[in-house]
Amino acid sequence: MPEAHHEVTVEADSDVRLDLFVARWLGLSRTQAATLIATGCVLVDGRRQKASYRPEAGDHVLAVLQRQESRPVLGESIPLHIVFEDDCLLIVDKPAGMVVHPAPGNWTGTLVNALIGRTESLERVGPPERAGIVHRLDKDTSGLLLVAKSDRSHRLLSAALAARRITRVYGALSWGHLDQDRVIVDRPLARDPRDRTRMAVVQTGKAARTTFVRLARFDSVDLLRAHLHTGRTHQIRVHLASLGHPVVGDDTYGGGGGRRAVHLPTRRQFLHAAWMRFLHPETGQQIDVRSPLPEDLRASLAHVANTPSLIAHLDPLDVFDFYQLAATT
Fold this sequence. Notes:
By secondary structure, this protein is α+β, with helices and mostly antiparallel strands.
């Protein structure tokens, strides 16, 4: 099996063990990293070290990984909520907890498996593991996701996304209170150099811009409309964390505590892709689709707003004037 060689020179003395350093660097679990170290697949300045070794400035770390053979992505019979579909594209309302793309640890049960199981032709749109998906949503983020049904549609929709002609707006609860009712965050993002499983504001990263509008201020949280002008990984989550107001329920970026106080389920973050607008790539028709808050987020919003009737409301975001696009630009 072919090997992949990864090398890095440590810039400063590390305050973590070698196994954790390798795990963060390569995006592995700590157990996987420890196994690589124990089997001699990780060398520091050409020598084997124990997992407890703490890398020092100037150390040259080499990791040799066996390349995984590509594996077929199989279609599965998984129910999907489709909110729009024609011969060109479809829009899925993804539930929280569903992974979008197959990857080690999640080869089955993903949105891609469900899409291929529903329409086998999607296997041939882009790489097999993407099945026509134009953008992505995090596992614990719910809401609208755009899928192309042909290579031509994928090219046109991807170009529209890159040119910022597809409007994507999210509903979020954030801890604490923003300094102003409208905040624009324009901060570049890249992999966190200290933890490769996370994103961070990095001056050499890719441009990222988000507009946040406060729709309501409650005791300990704000209800926000978040308008993505770019689509970087974890963009809304990192931008809010950089303001000191992480997304409620976001374990990765500091918002995971206090779920019980806002009646939010375990392993759920209050982030929902609620609204999408764009011109159809073939017909020019205006596509305007909305996804009401799912039941778990409705219950949380009703609790923090002290308004039990919101639980039964068809679309509680509408109560807070969420669908006012002029205010998001």
